[in-house]
Amino acid sequence: MSAQMSYTYRGLVVPVLTPFHDDGSLNLNAIPKYATYLAEKGVKGILVNGTSGEGTSMSVAERKLVTESWVRAVKKTQQHLMIQIGGAPLPDVLELARHAESMRVDSVLCLPELYFKPDTAEQLIEYLKTVGEAAPNTPLLYYHIPMFTNVNINMGQFLETIGDKIPSFVGIKFTSNNLEEGARALRANNGKYVVFLGNDQLIKTAREIGMDSFILTSINMFPEIVMDILAADKETQETLATSLQEKLSKIVTAITNHGNWVQTMKAAMALLTDIPVGPPRAPLTPISSAALEIMTKDLRSLGYKV
Length: 306
Known about the structure:
about 50% helix
């Protein structure tokens, strides 16, 4: 049976933050507690080494160590484990793909080549085909995040073009606010591929076009709100779903007003949970004490005890 046929995971995935010590070294000891915290909140899917996980700021050896730690952790929590392997020179990406498969992870997610960028769907397919051949038995997803990669290939066209050229290919993470493109991707090849939306502020709108799967950083801190949005939408409680989405959007804005996505999310994680994720990895720096004070005040005004 091909990986395409066997990949059935749908729903929520949390892109976890990578715990670092203050000196910038990995804090792998925090990962079991992190996995348990999320499992107890009802979070069944984990994405490791993504944007929020600062995968592109780590060495290949470090990324392997983080992957291995999460593999051990989810053996106890039984969470779906997705590993982001891209954002590195192709030989390193292939090494990470082979490593992820050797660890028997549930799926791999891959950024495009970031320097010699693909310009066409065909070029992207060739790149992903090479990656897929390095881990032929592991479901492969493409990571579409044009705001960082500047790879602007239309995902609807891409998914309509790919056909059966990559046996292990199963879908995409779609981090964009272009839901017209997202809808085309969702419909491609009669809905053959999973599309995970990576936009915390468009959950309700995305549900209206049929999206049912999401990879959202806010799940780290606010899993209940995200799940309540989906539950209200499923029960056609439109006013409640809209109200909850507006609440989450206000929270995300209050957090991200103060710097880069990762910087601010790590600061909020420290304020709102007891998971020691530590500072962001260089070249990022922690947000200023003044910004942290404002974020704290804003979160309190939104009803959070910080």
